[in-house]
From TrEMBL:
PROSITE patterns: AA_TRANSFER_CLASS_1. Its cofactor is pyridoxal 5'-phosphate. Keywords: Aminotransferase, Transferase. NCBIfam families: PRK06836.1 (NF005305). GO terms for molecular function: pyridoxal phosphate binding; transaminase activity. The lineage of its organism: Bacteria, Bacillati, Bacillota, Clostridia, Lachnospirales. The gene is aspC. Its EC number is 2.6.1.-. It is an enzyme of class 2 (transferase). This is Aminotransferase. It comes from Robinsoniella peoriensis. Residues 35-380 form the Aminotransferase class I/classII large domain.
Length: 395
C-alpha cells in the first residue's frame, strides 16, 4: 500500500514525461525522423568541450580518494569559492564560500530550501504559468502552493493580484526567470516593484517572506537581454541555480543555492540547509561534477544554436497565424491554442506526429508549450505540419 500523498502524485504524474514516453513509442513505429517531439526540456546542444577536458584532468590528475569521497554536506570548499567568486565578478555581489551550497540540480536545491523553511500549512506563492514540479517541491514539506493568475498580455508577474494574495501564512515566493514555459525574462522594473511589495507586506504582517529564485535558464538569454540578479533588489532572496541547461548536464544533477548574509537569520538558514541536504538523502551534490564545475564555472553552451531555433520556429508559427509572445530566454515557446481547450489542439498535433505540452500542466490552460531544444532539422521539417495544423483550425 503506497502513501496517500504518493497516490495523488502518481495520478498527476507529469504529463510532460508521459508525452516524452509517447514520443519514444511513436519513433519506434514511424521512425525518429518522422516524429517532432517538442515535449521535454532536454538540451540538444552538447556540453562545452571544457567539461570533457575537466573530467579528464580530474580523473587523471586529482587524488581519487578526494574526488570520489564524502566532503562537507555543502560541497567542496574550493568549488564553492569558485562559484562565489564567479557570481561576484559577474553581478558585483560579495558572496563567500559559506553562502554557497552545492545541490543535486535545481530540483534538489528547491527541496533543500523548502525543507529548511516550511512548516506545515505555510503558503508559497508563485506566478502562473509555472513549472508544475513546484507543487511537489512545496507539498513534500506540507506547504501549500498558491498560483497568482497570469497577465497573458506580457506574462510578466501580475503584481496587483500578487499583493492581494499575500497573507500572514506566506513564507516564500518562487520566481523563475527566464521562465519555463513562456521564455519571458522578468524585467528590472518588475523585480523592483515585486521587492517593494514584499518589503511592505513583511512590515505590515511582521513576517519574513523569502523570495526563492529558480534560475536554471539564467545563461540562456537572447538579443543581448540582461537577466537581473535578484539578490540586488530584495534582501531575503535565496537563489537556486542549476547547470542542467547552462552546461547541458541535466543527467549529472548539479547546481547550487546561494543564501546571502543579508537573508533574515542567514546563519541559521545556511546551517539548516546543510543538514537538509544531508537528511533528504542527497548527502552532498555529486562529487565528480562539483569538481568539474570548479574548473568550468565560466564555460558556456552555444546559445546561438537555440537562438536560431527560436527565430525559425517563432517566425514560422507567426506566419501561419499562431499567436505567441517572442521569448527572450530559455528554450520554450508558449503559443495560444487556437481552441479554448488546448488539449484538443495537442491531440490534433499528434496526428502529424507533433508532440507539445498542454498549458494546463503549467496552470495556464488555453496555451501550449513547444520546447525548441531540438535539432534545427526537427523544426524545419515540422513547419509544414504546423502549417497544416493551422489550416485545420484557422481555415
Ligand atoms: N526549474 C525549472 C523551471 C525547470 O524547467 C527545471 C527543469 O526542466 C527544473 C527546475 C529542474 O532542473 P534540474 O534538472 O536542475 O533539477
Amino acid at each position: 500500500m503506497i502513501a496517500e500523498k504518493m497516490k495523488s502524485y502518481v495520478e498527476n504524474s507529469s504529463v510532460i514525461r508521459a508525452m516524452f514516453e509517447e514520443g519514444g513509442k511513436m519513433a519506434a513505429v514511424y521512425g525518429a525522423e518522422n516524429v517532432y517531439d517538442f515535449s521535454l526540456g532536454n538540451p540538444n546542444v552538447a556540453a562545452p568541450v571544457e567539461v570533457r577536458q575537466a573530467i579528464e584532468e580530474i580523473i587523471t590528475g586529482e587524488d581519487p580518494v578526494m574526488v570520489h569521497g564524502y566532503m562537507s554536506n555543502a560541497g567542496f570548499e574550493d568549488v564553492r569559492t569558485a562559484v562565489a567568486n564567479s557570481l561576484n565578478r559577474r553581478f558585483d555581489t560579495a558572496f563567500h564560500e559559506e553562502n554557497i551550497i552545492m545541490t543535486v540540480g535545481a530540483a534538489g536545491g528547491m527541496n533543500v530550501i523548502f525543507r529548511t523553511i516550511l512548516n506545515p500549512g505555510d503558503e508559497v506563492l508563485t506566478f502562473a504559468p509555472y513549472f508544475g514540479e513546484y507543487r511537489a517541491y512545496v507539498s513534500n514539506y506540507d506547504g501549500i502552493l498558491k498560483a497568482v493568475e497570469p497577465d497573458t498580455d506580457t506574462f510578466q508577474p501580475n503584481l496587483e493580484k500578487f499583493e492581494e494574495m499575500i497573507t500572514g501564512r506566506t513564507k516564500a515566493v518562487i520566481v523563475n526567470s527566464p521562465n519555463n514555459p513562456t521564455g519571458v525574462v522578468y524585467s528590472e522594473d518588475t523585480l523592483i516593484k515585486l521587492a517593494d511589495i514584499l518589503r511592505r507586506k513583511q512590515e505590515e504582517l511582521q513576517t519574513v517572506i523569502y523570495l526563492v529564485t529558480d534560475e536554471p535558464y539564467r545563461e540562456l538569454a537572447y538579443d543581448g537581454v540582461a537577466v537581473p540578479f535578484v539578490t540586488k533588489y530584495y534582501e531575503n532572496t535565496i537563489v537556486g541555480y542549476s547547470f542542467s541547461k547552462s552546461l547541458s548536464l541535466p543527467g549529472e544533477r548539479i547546481g547550487y543555492l546561494v543564501i546571502p548574509d543579508q537573508v533574515s537569520d542567514s546563519e541559521q538558514v545556511i546551517a539548516a540547509a546543510n543538514v537538509a541536504n544531508r537528511i533528504l538523502g542527497y548527502v552532498n551534490a555529486p562529487s565528480l561534477f562539483q569538481r568539474v564545475i570548479g574548473k568550468c564555472i565560466d564555460a558556456k553552451v552555444d546559445v546561438q544554436f537555440y537562438d536560431k531555433n527560436r527565430r525559425t520556429l517563432y517566425d514560422g508559427l507567426k506566419k501561419f497565424g499562431f499567436s505567441c509572445i517572442k521569448p527572450e530566454g530559455a528554450f520554450y515557446l508558449f503559443v495560444k491554442s487556437p481552441v479554448e481547450d488546448e488539449k484538443v489542439f495537442v491531440e490534433a498535433a499528434k496526428k502529424y506526429h507533433i508532440l507539445i505540452v498542454p498549458g494546463s500542466s503549467f496552470a495556464c490552460p488555453g496555451y501550449v508549450r513547444i520546447a525548441y531544444c531540438v535539432s534545427l532539422d526537427t523544426i524545419v521539417n515540422a513547419l509544414p505540419y504546423f502549417e497544416k495544423l493551422a489550416q485545420e483550425f484557422f481555415g
